[in-house]
Amino acid sequence: MRDNNNPYLLLTPGPLSTSLSVRESMLKDWCTWDDEYKSLVQDLRSQLLEVNNLPSDKYTTVLMQGSGTFVNEAVIVSAIRKTDRLLVISNGIYGERLHEIATKAGIPSDLLDVGFYRQPNCQEIENALTSKQYTHAAIVHCETTTGILNPIESLIPCMKQHNVKVILDAMSSLGGIPIDIQGLDIDFTISSANKCIQGVPGFGYVIAKKKSLSECKNISPSLSLDIFDQWESMEKDPGKWRFTSPTHVVRAFYQALNELSEEGGIVARNKRYIENQALLVTKMEKIGFEPLIRREWQSPIITTFLSSEIPGFKFEEFYDFLKERSFVVYPGKVTDKQVFRIGNIGDVFPKDIDELTNAIKEYALELQGVTE
Question: What's the pLDDT at 1?
Answer without folding.
Answer: 45
